[in-house]
Each structure stands twice: as C-alpha cells, then as structure tokens.
Specification:
Blueprint lengths: L5 E6 L3 E6 L17 H11 L4 E5 L6 H11 L5 E5 L2 E2 L15 H6 L4 H9 L14 H7 L10 E2 L2 H13 L3 H15 L7 H9 L8 H5 L22 H17 L5 H14 L4 H13 L8 H8 L1 H16 L1
Parallel strand pairs: 3-4, 5-6
Antiparallel strand pairs: 1-2
Helix pairs in contact: 1-2, 4-6, 7-8, 10-12, 10-14, 11-12, 11-13, 12-13, 12-14, 13-14
Length: about 325
C-alpha cells in the first residue's frame, strides 16, 4: 500500500469517496498455512467469475479501497460498487438471524405471502417516483432503480409488512385464498360440520397473515375462557345482569326457531327487542358474547348462530347463562 496521497473510488449510491492512503494498512494476502486470505481470494474469485457489479451493505465501504488496490495491481477492471444502506429493526440494530430476526423462510412460516415480502423489502431504502407502494414483481422490475436508494439505514417495520400482506391477501381470488387458508382453518376449526368456505370468506378481509386465522376463528371450535365483565358495553348499554335476562328470554325463541338462518334469526330477535323496549344491540351483544367469548368477531350474532348451527349455539347460550348465574 502507498503511504502517501489518496485513493478515490466511486459508489453508485454514495458517489466518489476519497480516503487517505496512510489510513490503509498493508493487507496480508497469503496466510502462514499457504492459503489466501478472504480479502485476496474475494477479488480473484470475482474477477474469474466475471463479476461486473458488487452489491453489498454499506458497512463494507471501507474495504473497497483495499480491494481496488489489488484490482489495480493485477491490471483488472474494477467492478461497479453499489453499497446499500443497512436494514435495522425498530431499535436501530442491524437485522441478523443471530439476533433473532426473521429470515425470508421464517416469514413464510409465519403466514406471509412471498409477493408481499418481496414488495415490502424493495421499499426499504427506496421508493418509486410515483410513490406507489403495492406493486407486482413485473412492476417492481420495471420501476426499481438502485440509484434512488437512500443513504440512510432503513427500518424494518413488521407492522407495515403485516398491513401490506393483508392487502395482498384481500386481493387474492376467493378460491385461491381458500386453498391457501384451508390448512390454517382446519387447524383452528377441526369440526367438519362447519362450512370451511364460509369461514374462509369471513377471514379473507380480516387477517393480515394466515397465522391470524387461528385467533380469528378459533372460537368456532371452542369458546375461550372469558370474564363476564365482557357483557358490559357502555354504548350498547348492556350489563351482565341485563345480558343474563336477555339470554334466558331469547333461549326459548331460539329453541323454537326451525329456520336457523341469519335472516330468520335476525328478524325474530329484532322483533323481540322491539316488543321488550330494547335496542337491537342489547340483544345481539349478549348473544354474540355468549357464543364466541370474544369482544371482536368476524360476523354478527345471528351470522355466528347460523354458522355454529342450532345445537351448538343453544349449548353455548345455556353455558353462558350458567356462567352469569355464578
């Protein structure tokens, strides 16, 4: 290495970078065991393979001048350098498997679509001129220009990726979504008596990853343990006491209903509410809570009753009355 003067190299993102030669150490090329060092072998290997562009993280910017000295010594053409900004987590730590960050394969196992992962990753440190966020692979191929990449580190925001994945899921054809979601639905709701096409239809617009299906639909298999305080709803003006009364009075109506369908059940319960001077929500909220055990469900009370079926619905309402009586 020369000890005076400077060495300048060009990077497609950071432009011309000049370093003092006095700051460049003489490199060891051959180790004592006769094998070449990585820095030496890397340059020779890239040249022999005809590498024209070297794309890597910007933590390797400081290595470029050393590599270029080897290229110059051999009389070889220096490749085009593209040093990309780092990708960090929300705590600004560099992403790494060792630190527990997810790999591409991990994200697939977590229920993310490959198209969404690629789309989101392309936007880390880069954005198209039209600021469009959701793009197909063909559109990304046409629009992507590494020269527009930022010099600053990009933060991997898992919430943003979840949102984007949810948008991709919503755009899937219904049958394609059903086929992809079926293994998750079967795991969450093993009962074959419940129409899985209906469950898929409920889930498609309400999940961000396929892994969300278990939490969203799991109550169809089994009512989770819940606190009776859930029956209290300020907006609906319900209380555990009123809910118990509503469930006890609507149970005989539901037992007598032959057409256990969403429309028929809604009309019957709506009429019951009017006859008893109650709002629809004061009837529907206790029933929905009783059959689901959840504050948020992918469907209203009568829709859940229809999906669960008469026998299971009545059993859950009776269990809820008993729970409220204790």
């Amino acid at each position: 290495m020369p000890h005076e003067g400077t060495t300048t190299f060009h990077d497609e993102i950071y432009g011309d970078i000049t370093v003092e030669n006095a700051d460049l150490d003489d490199m060891i090329l051959i180790k004592s065991d006769g094998f070449p060092t990585y820095n030496f072998a890397n340059v020779v290997d890239d040249h022999l393979m005809g590498i024209t562009h070297v794309v890597r993280g910007n933590e390797y910017l400081s290595s470029a001048p050393k590599y270029n000295r080897i290229y110059d010594a051999f009389g070889w053409e220096v490749p085009v350098y593209v040093h990309c900004p780092l990708i960090t987590d929300e705590h600004h730590a560099k992403l790494s498997k060792r630190s527990g960050h997810s790999s591409f394969e991990d994200l697939l196992e977590q229920g993310f679509l490959p198209e969404a992962i690629v789309n989101y990753t392309a936007l880390l440190g880069w954005n198209p001129e039209d600021n469009e966020e959701i793009m197909s692979l063909a559109e990304l191929t046409e629009k992507f220009d590494f020269r527009r990449m930022s010099k600053s580190p990009a933060v991997f925001d898992i919430s943003k990726l979840r949102w984007m994945n949810g948008e991709y899921i919503k755009r899937l054809p219904a049958e394609t979504f059903y086929e992809m979601a079926l293994p998750y639905i079967e795991k969450a709701v093993p009962e074959e008596t419940i129409d899985r096409h209906v469950l898929a239809e409920l889930a498609q617009s309400r999940i961000e990853t396929f892994a969300d299906i278990e939490d969203l639909l799991g109550f169809f298999h089994e009512v989770p343990d819940y606190d009776t305080a859930m029956y209290t709803h300020k907006k609906m003006k319900t209380t555990p006491e009123l809910s118990k009364e509503v469930l006890e009075k609507t149970l005989p109506l539901l037992e007598a209903e032959a057409a256990f369908s969403n429309d028929a059940l809604f009309e019957k319960l709506k009429a019951f509410a009017a006859d008893n001077g109650l709002k629809n929500g004061q009837i529907m909220w206790p029933i929905r809570t009783a059959v689901s055990g959840k504050e948020m469900t992918p469907g209203g009370a009568t829709q859940l009753l229809e999906i669960l079926g008469k026998e299971e619905s009545l059993a859950r309402i009776r269990a809820a009355i008993e729970k409220l009586s204790r």
